[in-house]
Amino acid sequence: MTTPRIFFYVQHLLGIGHIARASRIANALVKDGFDVTVVTGGLPVPGFPGEGVKTVALPAVVASNAGFSGLADAEGRPAGEDFLSTRRDLLLDAFHAARPDVVIIEAFPFGRRQMRFELLPLLAAIDKSEPRPKLLSSVRDILQENRKAGRDAETVALVRDHFDAVLVHGDPNFVRLEDTFPLTAEIADKLLYTGLVAPPAAPEPSETFDIIASAGGGAVGAELIGAAKEAAAMLPDQLRWLLISGPNLPEADFAALSQNAPQNVTLMRFRKDFPSLLRGAKVSISQAGYNTVGDLLRTDCRAILIPFVAGGETEQTVRAERLQALDLAEILPETGLTSGHVKEAVEKALTAPGRGAVSLDLDGAEKTAGIIRAILAGN
Asked: What pLDDT score does 200 carry?
């Protein structure tokens, strides 16, 4: 039997969460014996998509603002018609060259409406293909709420007309799709829960820090890291701090954070061994993104979460509140965050008892591979 071919489209616009989760899934698919091509459409991120994965890098686009209302190229210029039509043609060429058995589109049609200029033509090309590949949507467990009137109905129509299944990367005992997508009942027959796509348990850390503050991709993390840096100066200096700004933090912000850092504070842009470092830490301060939380749930580290709320974002707040209800995290507000808030939260976390084992399903990447094998087998 020939090796099944997967064509996996992922577009990250602001943070690195989407490409990180897609990469974990792609790596699990490769280990399961699939031939995987990941098509990326955002700025390059070190370490992703990972070894053994074929990649096609489209000319990068990013969100032109925190509200995701526009697209810009890698230099920050508005993405014009010629640029976008070139991207669309490159995507379609890559699809035809790959001749996949399965196409996975990350986020769409539940998100990434900005990419319809190339994704609707891709859906049309899939429908015309002989044989037609299976088409799967890959979505996180919590969707952005407060969408405009008609958006949910449009999403349902696209799912029913084009998609064979929707892979929901979550544990239904933690959160269900209907909690943030009101029309879930209309597509319930297409939903397949995979479990959370968390990393495998990390190896022992190469060095240890007591407190790690991280800002994900870093495009919007300067205030979080700044507050953590100031809190470090207010707490005992025998505590070792690691501040990870993220690869996308503007250079001017990184330079400002580097100035006058206390002796017990290390500032870096990125650490590939982040999961290992969390394993050795007592406290983590971070946003409440899907992948960061997945990393945290594999450790005994106490979590202080600062959900991202710019542009009306609700997804991280929902996740953080669910975790707090399970005594797996404490929450600080992003708006008005001060070093005093961080100091108090860290002091509380350092004296809190260790939490027990997490009962959530964290093996979503491996289970996704098994689900796709079953789909191809017609089960």
From this structure: 86
